[in-house]
Amino acid sequence: MRLITTVVASVFALILLQACTGPEGPPGRDGLDGVDGAPAVSIPFIFDLDVDERSGAVASSVFDFPEITPNITDNGAVIVYFFDQGTWTALPFTIGLEAPDEPVVDFTVTLGYAFDDGLLEVFLEASTDDDVVWDEIDAIFGGGVDMRAVIIQGVAASQATVNFGDYEAVVEYFDLQQ
Fold it and tell me: How far apart are the first and last CA of the chain?
């Protein structure tokens, strides 16, 4: 009798499992478009002031970034960092520079960025368009600035519990290749 009960229970369980199919649910969340499905990626590039176009007090360069898809633009995040004096610093970043002969801030320089589908623009904006000041800026930033663009898929960006101002913490959190 016990064997019959076990067989009947097994057949009944199989029938129930077969009946547990239903309509297909909504599609799952997309990964990072164009970057092998990773939730985030870090891409190195060089901002070289020597080849940038300057308009008044602003110099900028536009970079092709096919990894910045419409999905990233609409739902994700792009964070840019630059390397200086042994550390990575998040943009935007403003510094005050002074003349060697006077210990006061003579002008400020802001390094910033903007992005859109397929592109990233990095700009350097000074508080003046004086050519003497731009010669000093070129001495500091000319020759290329090592940068990283961290591109983060929407869900990963919105749910991340990391200090985005700390590049090393972002690398560790998202397990990024460098």
Answer: 66
Q: What is the pLDDT of residue 177?
A: 79
Give how many domains the chain has, as a whole number.
Answer: 1
38 neighbors 172 (Cβ within 8 angstroms) = no
Cβ atoms of residues 177 and 169 within 8 Å: no
Q: Classify residue 12: in a domain, yes or no.
A: no
The pair phi, psi for residue 134, each rounded to 5°, is -70, -30
Max CA distance (Å), the chain: 103
What is the side-by-side strand order in the sheet with 87-90? 40-47, 145-152, 77-84, 87-90
Compute the average pLDDT of residues 20-28: 45
Looking at residue 75, its amino acid is N
Q: How high is the pLDDT of residue 41?
A: 94
d(CA 50, CA 48): 5
Report residue 88: phi and psi, to 5°: -95, 135
Domain region containing 149: 30-174
Cα dihedral sign, 26-32-35-37: negative
C-alpha to C-alpha distance for 150 and 67, rounded to whole angstroms: 10
Residue 106 lies in a domain: yes
